[in-house]
Amino acid sequence: YLAMHQLLAPCSVPIEGTTILTQRGYSRGSVFRSLTQSATNAEWLVRLYYAASVYLSARMIPGTRTTVLSAGDWDFLWPLSWVERFDAGFTLGLISIASFLSSLLAFQFHRSMLARALFSMLFLLAATVTNSLGGINHPYHSWFWVSFVFIFLPSGNVANFGRSERMSYLTVIRLAQALFLLFYTMTGTWKVVYGVIPALAGQVGNFSPDALSLTLANRSLQTGTEPLLAPLFIGNPLLAWPIFLALIYIQVVSVIVAFRPRLHLVWGYLQIGFHLGTWLLMEIIFNEHILLLLILLVLSPQSSAFRRLSESLEDLPILGRVWRRARTPRELAPQP
Fold it and tell me: Minimal CA–CA distance to 302: which of 257, 258, 262?
């Protein structure tokens, strides 16, 4: 847990043989004295995740039935390749119900590794149904990977854990946050790639002033839709450009933010704003991702420990250095 902080957050000093962060709000109190409270908060986060999983799994039951009734030729992915030997409709219906029942078990017995592993396995099968018609749908990918990471949470009552077990528990939570945010970083990285390559070729790319406007116009023509704010941004490229560049930055550095808890709350809402924006501009929204952002980032076990916005801004990747240099000596002076 401490090693991951040390890897991506600078300004540390050795204390009692352990290197921990002391500058920019990371103190002995924030890391050790709050360890018990952070672990307790983390357990509530896990319970909330499985409560939301019950809802999603219940919603998948009628969704699976609708898919079965409308399906033509199946193209089962490897987790469901064995279904071809049985009645597909009946078997897929049983899988969706089993996934729902396992989510109830995982919620009630969230301290059991067996219950968490069973849910992860059955949820993978249920989520694969929508991707077995020859296309790929993304809503449940992140939810599954978080469930897989949660399998490795230490079993037992967090209240009875020692310090090492609590740190292990928080490390798994941090790994889930990092893996989830890595998906946003991957998305942002591709945006950078398709900005640099066209720029080098002298073509319009993601760094061009009219990049977002052209993307929205092309999307509207393809789908025949007119999202609420799309006309505004299509007709005003210079309004869209800085927002698009800011989005690319927010996405690219997301995986680093996983290791900077003072940014969790802000980054959670920024990414939720991104999903709201994709609906307003393209009529694309991922409700499951919004739920995960609320659970993993907005309710992050350490995010509530740091409330000063000026201190949070210091942790911004790259831009945080600029902010620290811009602060006045009075702001940088030790507080009484």
Answer: 262
